[in-house]
Specification:
HIT family, subunit A; about 110 residues; five-stranded antiparallel β-sheet; about 20% helix; binds zinc ion; 2 helices; globular; alpha+beta; binds guanosine-5'-monophosphate
């Protein structure tokens, strides 16, 4: 846990969030500034600063994010068409330095992303 980290505060319940799912490893909640009709985030309870900081011991945890994310997408009726995004570094659009997986769906997506 990092005491100044926004997503650690959401994990601890110090800041409210519109939660979809939680278990011993992960928490999912809707993005406060959605970029698609469905846009939620999956975060690890463990503070990991971003994709580049994933260690060998975290591999199963990161795989679980994808499995649970797909299940939650299906529950939100976007199970066949959704985009998964991890941003790493400010230039790539990372603004919260606690690893999070975006799941977006409910509209057509463009490629390449901006
Ligand atoms: P990043 O830009 O780091 O990949 O994604 C951070 C995401 O967190 C953004 O999409 C932003 O809208 C979302 N976000 C930032 N602060 C909050 C918050 O307090 N609550 C929720 N639910 N989402 C947040
Ligand atoms: Zn954190």
């Amino acid at each position: 846990m990092d005491k100044d980290c926004l997503f650690c505060k959401i994990v601890k319940g110090e800041i409210p969030a519109d939660k979809l799912y939680e278990d011993e490893d992960l928490l999912a909640f809707r993005d406060i500034n959605p970029q698609a009709p469905v846009h939620f985030l999956l975060v690890t309870r463990k503070h990991i600063s971003g994709p580049a900081a994933v260690a060998e011991e975290d591999e199963a945890l990161i795989g679980k994010m994808l499995r649970v994310g797909a299940e939650l997408a299906a529950r939100d009726n976007i199970g066949d068409d959704f985009r998964v995004v991890f941003n790493n570094g400010a230039q790539a659009g990372q603004t919260v330095f606690h690893i999070h997986m975006h799941i977006l769906g409910g509209r057509a997506m463009n490629w390449p992303p901006g």
